[in-house]
Amino acid sequence: MRSTVLSVFLIPMMMVASFAAAFEIEDRATFGPQDGQALRIISTADIGFFEPMIQSYLAEHPDERIDYIVASSTNVMQAVQDEANIFDIAISSAMDLQTKLANDGYALRHVSEATQTLPDWAKWNDMLFAFTEEPAAIVVSKQAFNERIIPRTRHDLIEALRREPERFQGRVGTYDVRQSGLGYLFATQDTRASETFWRLAEVLGALDVKLYCCSSDMIDDVKSGDLLIAYNVLGSYVANRDDRDEFEIIMPEDFTTIMLRTVLIPTGAKSPDKSREFIDHVLATSHDTGAASLIDPALGLSQSSAAVNRIVIGPGLLVFLDQLKRRAFLTEWESAILQEQ
Q1: CA-to-CA distance for 245 and 238, rounded, in angstroms?
Q2: Which of 56, 126, 143, 259 is packed most tightly, with the most Cβ within 10 A?
Q3: Is 1 within a domain?
């Protein structure tokens, strides 16, 4: 992943060396004065995506420093489990993994005016708090579909792919659910909502679908022309790009899955009071100023004709984390997607 951050410095190498062997770091940056009191955050959110929230917090806390680490959702979970004393905040798009961390005793409780004003669906057990609503979208290049009908449902997508298999061979992308926690969450939620997912997976497999770890990489490949379609991409990542007008962001009208990006305080946080201040700022800002809005106005979710399928925080998310269920799901997924094997 790439960063477009202003006034950013590499986190001191001694800090990085202390945990680099434990999990893979995708990106890292430091905001604020180098001698400031550090608030250490591990997150799945790209630096550029989350920077406005960091800068708005530092505007109110100019003497503090934020050390920001970007990692995959599975690595965020691993870091909290194995290296909990390193981080003060954990942010992830994988709601199921965050719920498991809280359920297994890896999160501190936090009650404040900001958390109490949240709707019930945006918090769980005073440990896990949602601050965005982000849709799983189909993203296509407007130029590639200039004279073609853009698919608006999963059925439309299946028909479009079947109609021109030569055109789409090797030029459709989606998450590798074996590696991406968010991809796995989206895929399992798809199967809960409709049986269409498995038909689509078989069609994608027949077209030699390209598999990705991250939404950003898929979006970049749609822009370059390597992909014509990306399935289950985070719509917010497209909406926040300067070149968003080059893309069509499709929220499937049969149903659009809505992920809630969540934040928690690891039990080993060295600055839990600062963690609570940061969470309250994030919750207040996401509601009041739109810096990381709970519903991104650029996506028009509130005006969408799609049936919204908001993923609910809670123990129900743990079902597909059961090892037997996960193994069975991945076996079926590999059979559909990796047909040549």
Answers
A1: 9
A2: 259
A3: no
Question: What's the gap between Cα 166 and its chain centre?
Answer: 31
Domain co-membership, 216 together with 311: yes
- Secondary structure (3-state) at 18: helix
Residues 206 and 278 in one domain: no
The H-assigned helical ranges of the chain are 13-19, 47-60, 73-82, 95-103, 113-116, 154-163, 165-168, 181-193, 196-206, 215-224, 235-239, 272-288, 323-337
Task: Please tell me whether residue 226 adopts helix, strand or coil conformation.
Answer: coil
Compute mean pLDDT per 10 residues along the chain, 341 residues long, and list them: 39 44 82 90 92 93 95 91 84 94 96 93 94 91 89 96 96 96 94 93 97 94 96 90 91 92 94 96 74 49 66 91 95 91 49
Cα separation, 93 vs 8, whole angstroms = 24
Structural domains in the chain (count): 2
| Per-residue pLDDT tens digits for 137-157 | 999 999 888 888 999 999 999
- Domain hosting 250: range is 134-258+300-337
- Backbone torsions φ then ψ of 48, nearest 5 degrees: -60, -35
